[in-house]
Amino acid sequence: MKKILISSIFAVATLFATATAFAQDAQVTLPSAGLTPSSPFYFLDRFGENLRQFFTFNRETKAKLQIEFAGERIAEIKIMVEKKGVNAKGLAIAESLLKTNVAYAAEIIDQEKTSGKDVSVLAKTLNDEFDLRDKLLEQTFKDAKEQLKAQRKEIKTKLLTEARSVGDTTQIAVLEAQLKDIDDQIDILGQKKDQLENSLQNEQENIEKEMSEDDQKKEEIEQEEEQEAEDIEEAKEIDEEVDEPKETKESQETDEKESTQDSNSSDQNDQNTNETSNND
To answer: Which residues have C-beta within 8 Å of that of residue 68, sequence separation ≥ 6?
Structure first.
């Protein structure tokens, strides 16, 4: 009985450890961005990476190193977008290096396959590791867009309404210019996101095609599910953007109505004053 109990406890512990390990593997955090391409000392960061790459002789390890470097590029993109927005200095450099990292990983897999090795397991490992980091890249652009939309809403629903209510034409012009700038940033952000994702997808497909057929089918199903979720999210955003101007227009009409009422009230008071003066 005691042996059975011990065996049961051991089995449960093993199952728990396996589940925990799986959960940890399914999550990834970005490394510290450190120096970014906007820094004049960024070449030191690149020099260190090149040294690591030079002294890594095993091809599989070198391929995995590229995915690690890709994570660092994503961390750099994240910090630059958060601090400086879509026009951040050095952002294009980080994006270009990110594509280079993924392309080199795919190239190493091709070289290994050409040498006669079975690369299906390596391809699956690299693809899974990059997928996790790629999701963080998508979240970076999503967070940046949400921040811009929040700024736009603040201006439209509060600041612009207040300026209109007091008839401050100068402030209204300034706020409307800010709204246009925010809309432009949102458009540029979307374009950068699409361009970068398309470029990365092209390189990642070179990795995916070397996976086993079963893994490729699973990957296709996952991509379809992700695309459906993304389409739903985009449709929701479009609905929100369509509704937002209505609120602003109604608010503007209310302000104009109140302003007209105040003006009419003022005119009526002036008229009453004049009539009283004439009677006297």
So the answer is: 31
